[in-house]
Amino acid sequence: MRTAIRLLLAMTAGPLLLGFAVHAARAQSGPAPLTRDQVAKIRKIEGRLMAPCCYTQTILEHQSQEAEQMRGEVTVFVASGKSEQEIVTYYRTKYGETILVVPDGMTGRLAFGIPVAVFLAAFGLLFFAIRRSTRARVLAVAQFLPNRPEAEKLAFQDKIRAEIGEI
Which residues have C-beta within 8 Å of that of residue 128, sequence separation ≥ 6? Predict the structure, then answer.
């Protein structure tokens, strides 16, 4: 019985010790540490990509298995020397345009350009409407002064314009 236990221990201890030795050798000769530029590049890319599980947060912030896996892939890609555009293109082909926080190309320009154009147009219309209504008030007041001399009417109109800030 004792020989069977010794044989069993020898059979399991050998591969176990070999596994520990391989793990220790890998830990000593592991990948080179990342530079500050590479870490900054990784964070920038992680901030550009949405988590594919729910598309509510970037993979930099999201805590899911998919986001964790993508963070690991991005780190490996950057460590292997891939450019930011190559990495983003890889994920765009894998998941589609919705993986990007800010769409590239014409879609991105439209997404940001249309609200700005609408705001400027609305502001312009409001400005001209207010200006038109203040001019109408000045002319209406001038009609109530029919018996006064022309010079006095003009002076009174100038005073009104100055008070409402038109001059």
Answer: none
Tens digits of per-residue pLDDT, 70-112?
999 999 999 998 998 999 999 988 988 888 887 765 566 666 7
Extract long-range pairs of 54-59: CB within 8 Å, 24+ residues apart: 55/98, 58/101
Residue 135 one-letter amino acid: R
Query: Which has the minimum average pLDDT: 22-26, 89-93, 97-101, 134-138?
Result: 22-26
Which amino acid type is present at position 13?
Answer: A
Q: What's at 106, amino acid-wise?
A: M
Task: Give the architecture-level CATH label for domain 33-101.
Answer: Orthogonal Bundle (1.10)
The SS3 call for residue 79 is helix
Candidates 99, 79, 80; CA nearest to 88 is 99
* Number of neighbouring beta carbons within 10 Å of residue 87: 19
pLDDT digits (tens, 9 = 90+) for 3-12: 655 545 555 5
CB atoms within 10 A of CB 159: 11
The C-alpha angle with vertex 78 and arms to 75 and 81, in degrees rounded to 5, equals: 150
Query: What does the block give as tokens for 42?
Result: 């990784």
